[in-house]
Design brief:
The protein has 323 residues and is α/β, with parallel strands linked by helices. 30% of the residues lie in helices and 22% in strands. It contains 10 helices and 14 strands. The strands form 3 sheets. A 10-stranded mixed beta sheet has the order 8-7-6-9-10-5-11-12-13-14, sandwiched between helices. A two-stranded antiparallel sheet has the order 1-2.
């Protein structure tokens, strides 16, 4: 072992830079403050500006069992992922669980909804057995409301709410960002970024979008491009956006996202049972297993993988051989 390799790491693993924490490929630049890979890191490190370990935020285990079973080393947090599935594949439940697992980890989350009112979004959590009232109270959850202003009679909609839904609406009022022009992508982008600033969402948390299908094709391309750059790439906050399966989902759409997760109904497995399966078609920068995994939904547990280890017990960084 050479003098610039860690004695506490197995084999010939190279020394990590004490500023950027990436492996040092050659001889380190050694100072009294540590070992550095470059002059830039050495200068920054001696200014007491040492960065956090990137492994702490650049990959996450989502907490969704069937998804984590296929991505054993974690999902890159700079990813814009499209969740493609036909009706009946539990796409909505998966998006809901992604948010809950982030909240459960103590992280903030934001939901962009174009198809459902905010109170109904929150009710999905309660119906599953997940209480998000503390997250609303602790200011860890935002709902970007692109739905309500599409209603022609919003006042009547509000007047007809049940006592419980009215209570939920009042409790969540400070957590709802109302978009008054939801047919234009600029107000949505502005509202989302303001919400992420309020939640201090950089290198933490996640964003879900209930449906990209609400955007016209040319608006959808611009919306994905802008949010991917401003949220995923600039903040290291992943976005998972739902869309209905339409053939091969268009090569233009597929090329502008970092990942595509497919959900399908697999009736061919058993003639009298409707199986649901999840597969990772694409995930840039991450290992993913090339197979379909069968899953089902259970209250409280969420989506459960059939015949797979509970991925919530697998730490990020574990190899597939350890599963």
């Amino acid at each position: 072992m050479s003098s610039h390799q860690r004695s506490d790491r197995p084999g010939d693993y190279p020394l990590e830079c004490d500023h950027c924490h990436y492996p040092i490929p050659g001889e380190p630049k050694e100072t009294d403050d540590g070992y550095f890979c470059s002059t830039a890191c050495r200068d920054a490190g001696t200014d007491d500006a040492t960065m956090a370990d990137p492994s702490a935020y650049k990959r996450i285990a989502t907490g969704v069992e069937p998804l984590d079973s296929l991505v054993p080393n974690g999902v890159p947090t700079d990813s814009f992922i499209s969740l493609v599935g036909e009706a009946g594949t539990r796409r909505t439940e998966l998006l809901t669980e992604l948010v809950w697992r982030a909240v459960e980890r103590g992280e903030p989350a934001a939901i962009v909804t174009a198809t459902t009112p905010p109170t109904a979004i929150l009710e999905r959590f309660f119906e599953t057995g997940w209480n998000v009232l503390p997250a609303l109270e602790d200011d860890r959850l935002r709902i970007i409301d692109c739905f309500t202003h599409r209603l022609t009679d919003r006042e009547t909609f509000l007047e007809r709410r049940s006592t419980w839904i009215e209570f939920v609406g009042k409790t969540a009022v400070d957590s709802i960002v109302a978009i008054e022009e939801p047919t234009d992508i600029e107000p949505i982008l502005s509202g989302l970024n303001e919400a992420l600033d309020d939640l201090e969402m950089t290198e933490t948390g996640l964003v879900t979008i209930d449906s990209l299908d609400e955007f016209e094709d040319h608006h959808r391309h611009a919306f994905v491009t802008e949010t991917r750059a401003a949220v995923c790439k600039a903040r290291y906050v992943p976005i998972v956006a739902g869309t209905v399966a339409k053939g091969d989902w268009g090569p233009g759409d597929a090329s502008i996202v970092d990942g595509i997760v497919d959900l399908r109904l697999a009736d061919h497995l058993e003639s009298d049972v409707r199986h649901r399966q999840l597969g990772v078609r694409k995930l840039t920068g991450a290992q993913h297993l090339p197979q379909w995994i069968t899953y089902e939904y259970e209250p409280v547990r969420g989506l459960v993988a059939h015949g797979a280890a509970d991925a919530r017990d697998v730490p990020v960084g574990s190899s597939s051989a350890e599963l």
